[in-house]
Design brief:
By secondary structure, the protein is of the alpha/beta class. The protein contains nine helices and twelve strands. 40% of the residues lie in helices and 16% in strands. α4 links the parallel β4 and β5.
Length: 293
């Protein structure tokens, strides 16, 4: 099986490279190899590699910067996946794409289902939702995995930022009115490999859109407190005191892109169709901290 992995140097892409290797010939492509804002470059790589599976872990993820660079965000997050979908459909390939909880407005009191209608609040979320629609409309063999609050050992993410700040400062302020499910890229990559393996096993494959985030819900403040206390317990040099992580509302700090207040997602369909139970978010954090500390 020939697998084309886009975004191989990102925090998710690096994990995917390791989990996909046992499945076949993985061709990793970074932004330097294939800039997704350049449609011609993408087409050339697709025709050169001629993959049986396309795994798209590349994205424009600078949520606030997307508000001032909407055309670039759209090119990378929407137009590029559309071209992948069209190529995959013509050549009978499988397309695996990663979507975002930011497609939702966050007004629902319960966890979002795949059947709930997205209403993104910012340009980043809009470009991700447009990609979801394009893939579903143009590619029969697709898996769209909608995840949230990603973190891992590599790259920049909230968990690593909190660790760094907590070791430098005596007090932190963290938003406590945005709720979601922090998801380990290691767990998401393991799920991806399981699904790719399943779709190539010869049986009819349950293609489609799946919510694929960790189980359990917390706020950014709750996640920060958990990370700091775990690090403190492990003997990591933490300066901030246990009660010095101040919860604050999101409107106290202006950010160009509005975020959903509740972006928790129900993963029941993933379990019912694939028999896969996502780990609790705390378990994922524990595993990453064990490598970082």
């Amino acid at each position: 099986m020939k697998i084309m992995l886009l975004g191989c140097r990102g925090q998710l892409g690096a994990e995917l490279f390791q989990t996909l290797l046992p499945l076949g010939d993985v061709i990793p492509l970074s932004k330097n190899d294939c800039d997704l804002s350049d449609s011609d470059a993408l087409q050339q790589q697709l025709h050169r590699v001629r993959p049986q599976v396309i795994v798209n872990a590349a994205a424009y993820t600078a949520v606030d910067q997307a508000e001032v660079e909407p055309s670039i965000a759209h090119a990378v997050n929407t137009t590029a996946p559309l071209h992948m979908a069209l190529w995959a459909q013509r050549h009978g390939a499988l397309l695996v794409h990663f979507s975002s909880d930011y497609v939702f407005a966050g007004e629902k009191k319960r966890a979002y289902l795949e059947s709930d209608s997205p209403r993104p609040l910012n340009i980043y979320g809009r470009t991700k939702w447009e990609a979801d629609q394009a893939i579903m409309a143009h590619c029969e063999r697709h898996l769209i995995l909608r995840s949230s609050w990603l973190y891992g050992v590599r790259g920049s993410n909230f968990v690593k930022t909190v660790l760094a700040l907590a070791s430098q400062r005596e007090q932190l302020q963290v938003v406590n009115d945005q709720w979601g499910s922090p998801t380990s890229v290691s767990d998401l990559a393991a799920l991806t490999a399981h699904m790719v393996r399943g779709t190539n096993a010869g049986d009819p494959a349950p293609y489609g859109l799946y919510h694929a985030c960790a189980s359990g819900v917390t706020s950014w403040h709750g996640l920060a407190c958990y990370v700091v206390e775990c690090a403190r317990g492990a003997g990591y040099p933490i300066r901030v005191a246990p009660l010095a992580i101040e919860p604050c509302p999101s409107d106290r700090h202006f950010r160009p892109a509005k975020r959903p207040k509740n972006s928790s997602m129900d993963t029941g369909r993933l379990k019912a169709v694939w028999g896969w139970q996502m780990k609790d978010w705390r378990d994922g954090v524990d595993a990453v901290l064990a490598q970082l500390l």
